[in-house]
Design brief:
The complex is a heterotrimer of chains A (258), B (244) and C (459).
Chain A (H helix, E strand, L loop, with lengths): L1 H25 L5 H14 L1 H4 L11 H4 L27 H10 L13 H12 L4 H4 L15 H14 L3 H4 L8 H4 L28 H10 L10 H4 L4 H12 L7
Chain B lengths: L1 H23 L1 E11 L6 E4 L4 H4 L2 E4 L15 E5 L14 E6 L2 E3 L2 E5 L3 E6 L5 E7 L2 E8 L6 E4 L4 E6 L7 E7 L4 E3 L5 E8 L1 E9 L3 E9 L4 E9 L4 E7 L1
Parallel strand pairs in B: 1-18, 5-8, 7-13
Antiparallel strand pairs in B: 1-15, 2-3, 4-14, 4-16, 5-6, 8-11, 9-10, 9-12, 12-13, 16-17, 18-19
Chain C lengths: L1 H22 L10 H6 L7 E3 L2 E2 L1 H8 L15 E4 L2 E4 L5 E16 L11 E7 L4 E11 L2 E10 L5 E13 L5 E8 L20 E2 L12 E3 L11 E2 L22 E8 L6 E8 L14 E10 L5 E11 L4 E2 L5 E15 L2 E13 L9 E2 L1 E12 L4 E11 L1 E3 L6 E13 L2 E10 L9 H4 E12 L1
Parallel strand pairs in C: 13-24
Antiparallel strand pairs in C: 1-2, 3-4, 5-6, 5-7, 5-27, 7-8, 8-9, 9-10, 10-14, 11-12, 14-15, 15-16, 16-17, 17-19, 18-19, 19-20, 20-22, 21-24, 22-23, 23-25, 25-26, 26-27
Classes of the chains: A mainly alpha (258), B mainly beta (244), C mainly beta (459).
């Protein structure tokens, strides 16, 4: 009996150790060799859209948005939409890894099929396109706990926030991406391309993910290079607001969200 | 022992440089920026959003010229190719950028890198203050009514464009300098740059609409130099310098 | 007559319903078929303008319907059921309905030949979109892909497997060798691909004499298809005696042949090789050919940045007793082709040229048979707005075959396509016969102008 306990404990320990060593083995050191391996992968899988110099002008890149946004990400500029960091800051390695793994609905396939180590190698190579990654240390915003209100109360609060944050200006009162500024065609991305507003009733098209946590992250960070601003300053006052607004945005759609 | 010897050697070796600097001294540069020509009438835009705050129409005039002196307001003047010498005090006090009556105030902010830019919203509507440095986002932040100000340190020198995606007519500029030798012209088109190390310097002026001009000044120790820039209606310009 | 009218009504009704239902579909179903749904991307990730592929789509195809640089066949977009992984049905089934709803011909009546010559007539037909294709494609496991295309030709009636094959990918090493086995289009990796055209193929109209085996056959109206890929010879028959249309795509450029082929990029990313063996063009299923047809293709790709991509390719196709002449003697028919394509931002330019040769003209037709024919196709597609695609195509067929039948043809076609949604487009198209001033009583000369309006729906 006692022996069995010991065996279980040893096995558990073994699992923990092996898991942690796996995680460490998966993310290689950011060395020249790692970047070279990342480059080889990049040139097989990413170059078509992002281009050999990482400027988002690959041979197949124009067709993605044609005359409108989005074009493939230009890694040399230093603006990244999908982050966990404050507006204007670079993304963390984990942010880049998440985007490579999950892709961007509508525009970029996910590369979960690449081995984890390979994805980290691509992260290292992508970072080498922008020198700021060598001097800046991106720090993720702390995501606030969890929703505390009952759903009904949360939705009421979220609806009020949706109004007071003027989400409807772009996304429309019903969230269908048809707010007055969107309809006026005034919204442009950083490159001057007209950019469509997210239709909040179609969560499966959300570029930064559609889970509650993804929505809270998007509200806090904004999407750099687009008109979507960060609400971090406002949301840091009352932390539960982020969750309430996220709950309300999810309730705008009947689509089920993973 | 060795350390002390090294320290003394360093001190001694620094003395001539420090002496030279003291002898060299510091001077002031007075800058006058003029616009010669007719000022185009302001662009009147109908306000489609938030007219109760922004007004029914908005008048956009990127050239503010003083009459009769022709002095041009909101031009940024800056010594070029100079590094901080250490004597001067850095000018890294926080600079406040306000969203006020649907415009950015001040319209042009020069500051030294390392300064904090503090953004506030005095209007009872939401603005988003979207600042880009070249193409990179510096900050894009939702400024809800009655919200707290947002502060961010400006680390990189260069021109920052300030916009509000919701109110397209709102526009402003932040010019970040790596050193403290800069200024922005007042209503009469004048600016003063204090404590400039004596010697030869290039000096430039930048205006959002008229572009850039450059000239040369010789700053005398404990004296004053004057640089005058003239922008012309046809897009040309020239500059002259007077040293006193 | 009554029957025709009701057919038209029903057809129009179905068309309207399909158009409306696709309009009502949610935004993200805009993606094309299966692959877009599987990877949750828009069709523009892989296509310049469907069905034409961009470089990414090209590599996806080469890699056996796996993302370039990966071997993701087993997992992406699939549900796990124990140790079996399954795609959602919608992730490997797709549907395309394309064709002209209205065709209007301006031509000189001459059927039967010689009657009413010189009198220009207009004939307008409402036609149900001519072609439905049901696709099922994807990967069954890592490095094993499949594609089945079930086509329905409304005019001809019936459904047929246009393509159906299995691919085994990345054999030996990544991109060393990919094998396709089954009924496939040999030119899938060529710079200009037969089954990926903006201007739909419009079939010829054959005279009634053409139904008798090995009977002399004339055409009332020529077909409109890329001349470089066309059969090019007048007076050829398949092994069953049915006349071959000089305008239909064949040999290397056939839409579907039974066989096996191998392609890969072992010499770096820029060079693609392809070799293959097929039963041979015009081979009725189950017949035994005297020999197999062989082909080899080499392609060079350039594309790094600046939204620019270009490639050039050439092939040799060696036919082996793959057609007959009227005297029922076999001919060996070879084709040599070069093609090139360049894409820059919104513009897609392409050209293909092919020389067809018949070695050893059979004695039964010797002296009255031109053994060499050439075809040239030059085209351009350009997005003039986000939703409007203009296409221009020039075709010159320098025909060969039986001297008294053959007539060369030159056509220019212009099409404007308007995307109502990403997956629904309407188009108008006009083709002009450049040689109409030469007059004459053959199909290649009597057609003056052809106008089409149609719809292209993909989901």
């Amino acid at each position: 009996m006692r022996r069995a306990h010991v065996a279980t404990a040893a096995a558990l320990l073994g699992v923990i150790v092996s898991v942690s060593s796996l995680a460490q083995a998966a993310k290689p050191e950011d060395t020249a060799a790692t970047r070279a391996q990342g480059q080889a992968l990049f040139e097989r899988a990413c170059l078509f859209c992002h281009g050999v110099t990482g400027q988002g002008d690959g041979p197949a890149g124009w067709f993605l948005g044609r005359y409108a946004s989005p074009r493939p990400q230009n890694f040399t500029v230093g603006s990244f939409k999908l982050r966990s960091t404050p507006s204007g800051d670079l993304p963390t390695d984990q942010d880049l890894f998440r985007t490579i793994t999950k892709g961007i609905p509508g525009y970029m396939p996910g590369f979960a099929s690449l081995p984890e180590t390979a994805r980290w190698q691509v992260v290292a190579y992508v970072k080498s396109f922008y020198p700021g990654f060598r001097t800046e240390t991106p720090v993720p915003l702390s995501l606030v706990g969890a929703p505390t209100h009952q759903l009904a109360e949360s939705l009421d609060r979220g609806r009020a926030l949706y109004t007071s944050f003027e989400c409807h200006t772009c996304h429309g009162i019903e969230g269908q991406g048809d707010g007055p500024v969107a309809q006026a065609g005034e919204l442009k991305d950083a490159f001057g391309l007209s950019i469509p507003t997210a239709n909040l009733t179609r969560p499966s098209s959300f570029k930064n993910g559609a889970s509650l946590l993804d929505l809270v992250r998007t509200l806090l960070t904004g999407l750099d290079g687009t008109p979507m601003p960060s609400y971090a300053a406002r949301l840091s006052d009352r932390e539960t607001d982020a969750w309430d607004l996220a709950q309300y945005i999810r309730a705008l759609s009947a689509e089920s969200v993973p | 022992m060795l350390v002390i010897a090294l320290f003394i050697a360093l001190m001694v070796s620094n003395v001539p440089a420090a002496l030279a600097e003291m002898e060299q001294g510091y001077g002031t540069v007075n800058v006058h920026v003029l616009y010669r020509g007719t000022v185009p009438p302001p662009t009147e835009m109908k306000v489609t959003r938030d007219p109760e705050t922004c007004g029914a129409t908005i008048s956009l005039q990127s050239l503010t010229v003083h009459s009769p002196s022709d002095g041009l307001k909101d031009a940024v003047v800056m010594i070029e190719g100079i590094h901080s010498s250490g004597k001067e005090q850095t000018r890294t006090q926080p600079m406040v950028l306000s969203n006020s009556k649907c415009s950015f105030s001040p319209h042009v902010i020069p500051l030294q890198t390392g300064s904090t830019l503090e953004i506030q919203n005095l209007d009872q509507i939401m603005h988003n203050t979207h600042i880009t440095h070249e193409i990179r986002t510096f900050i894009n932040v939702a400024m809800v009514a009655n919200g707290r100000p947002v502060a961010k340190k400006v680390a990189n020198p260069g021109l920052y464009r300030v916009q509000c995606d919701v109110h397209k007519f709102m526009e402003g500029y932040v010019l970040a300098s790596g050193h403290p030798y800069f200024g922005v012209t007042d209503e009469r088109g004048s600016a003063k740059i204090l404590d400039v190390p004596a010697g030869e310097h290039d000096i430039s002026v930048w205006h959002e609409r008229l572009g850039q001009l450059q000239t040369h000044v010789t700053v005398p120790p404990n004296g004053e130099a004057t640089a005058t820039f003239e922008f012309h209606e046809d897009g040309t310009g020239h500059s002259r310098r007077i040293n006193r | 007559m009554l029957y025709r009218k009701s057919t038209l009504l029903v057809a129009t009704g179905i068309l309207v319903i399909i158009a409306l239902s696709s309009l009502a579909m949610p935004n993200q179903a805009q993606a094309i078929p299966a692959f877009a749904r599987k990877y949750e991307v828009n069709c523009t990730a892989c296509h310049t303008a469907p069905p034409i592929l961009n470089t990414y789509g090209q590599w996806f195809l080469e890699n056996g319907y796996q993302l370039p640089g990966t071997e993701d066949g087993g997992t992406t977009g699939k549900k796990k059921l124990g140790d079996v992984t399954l795609d959602d049905v919608g992730k490997y089934l797709a549907f395309r309905l394309v064709g002209n709803a209205v065709r209007s011909w301006s031509f000189t009546q001459q059927n039967p030949a010689g009657v009413d010559t010189g009198v220009a007539q207009n004939k307008t037909e409402l036609t149900f979109p001519e072609n439905f294709v049901l696709f099922a494609g994807g990967t069954v496991m890592k490095n094993v892909g499949f594609m089945v295309e079930l086509g329905h030709d409304v005019e001809g009636g019936g459904a047929a497997v246009e393509r159906g094959f299995v691919s085994f990918n990345n054999l030996g090493a990544q991109d060393l060798a990919h094998v396709r086995v089954g009924k496939f289009d040999p030119s899938a990796f060529y710079s200009v691909v037969t089954i990926r055209q903006q201007l739909n193929e419009v079939g010829e109209s054959a005279s009634s004499s053409c139904t008798t085996a090995f009977a002399p056959c004339s055409f009332n109206r020529i077909g409109l298809a890329p001349s470089a890929f066309a059969t090019k010879f007048y007076g050829l028959y398949d092994r069953g005696g049915s006349p071959l249309s000089p305008f239909a795509s064949s040999l290397y450029n056939s839409g579907g042949e039974l066989g096996l082929d191998v392609h890969g990029r072992p010499f770096g990313k820029a060079w693609l090789y392809q070799v293959g063996v097929v039963n041979g063009a015009n081979e009725p299923f189950g017949d035994s050919n005297k020999g197999k047809d062989l082909y080899a293709m080499l392609r060079y790709d350039y594309g790094h940045s600046d939204y620019f991509a270009a490639n050039i390719s050439g092939f040799v196709y060696h036919g082996n007793s793959n057609a007959k002449v009227q005297t029922q003697e076999d001919v060996n028919w070879h084709r040599y082709g070069v093609s090139a394509r360049a894409t820059y931002q919104m513009v897609d330019l392409y050209a293909a040229y092919a020389v067809d040769r018949i070695n050893h003209v059979p004695s039964g037709v010797s002296g009255a048979f031109d053994a060499t024919a050439t075809g040239l196709t030059i085209g351009a597609d350009a997005y003039v707005t986000n939703e409007t695609l203009l296409s221009l195509r020039y075709d010159n067929l320098d025909a060969g075959g039986v001297l008294e039948q053959r007539k060369s043809a030159t056509f220019v076609g212009l099409q404007a396509k308007q995307y109502l949604r990403t997956n629904v487009a309407v188009f108008v198209r006009n083709d002009v016969n450049v040689r109409k001033s030469e007059g004459g009583e053959t199909a290649a000369r009597n057609l003056r102008n052809a106008f089409f309006a149609g719809i292209d729906i993909i989901f």
